[in-house]
Amino acid sequence: MKFFIDTANLAQIKEAQDLGILDGVTTNPSLMAKEGITGQKNIIQHYLDICNIVDGPVSAEVIATDFEGIIKEGEALAKLHKNIVVKVPMIKEGIKAISYFSKKGIKTNCTLVFSAGQALLAAKAGATYVSPFLGRLDDISSDGMRLIEDIRLIYDNYMYETQILAASIRHTMHILKCAEVGADVMTGPLSSINGLFNHPLTDSGLKQFLADYNKGN
Ligand code: G3P
To answer: Can you point out the beta strands (E) in the chain?
Structure first.
């Protein structure tokens, strides 16, 4: 499973990159705003800054919601850097745009996906990635992980190449469960990735090894 980090915070992206296990980055307008990055010029520069840290797919989201606007914005984003993936919302105009981008060889990430039917449309349109938001489904007492399983089954039935990018990951167990059910990619905060390191037996075992080594020195 590929690991993407879901943030626009450059220090956290760098920290994850330095671990040597990072495959890519996802952002959205809310994550940009959280870092105080506003205005088209600054946002574009920020995408370039991210691309300079990570050599892997970087999702950049369009703001337009009409077909012509999505195409114009998406083509401009795709030209910024070879690793940019154009992130397009799951709406009718978005699906039309994903189909257009797919034929042009522009990579896409279909975002704000909350049902298997929406994921089926994204695959038929030729999306490179589909982003089911599992945490937000959990937030409203719906089973986010069940959605990932349903999409996996449907995509495998027809051998769709669209990669399932499990998004809205909130914690470490989400990552593990995504790996169990076969998500192709997970995108989560740095804290969810760091949680994978933790085990008290690792800590106590290492402490003991070092203490025993030092007895003879
Ligand atoms: O990339 C989509 C994802 O960031 C949404 O996460 O935590 O805002 O639901 P969250």
So the answer is: 2-6, 24-26, 58-61, 84-89, 108-113, 129-132, 163-166, 185-188
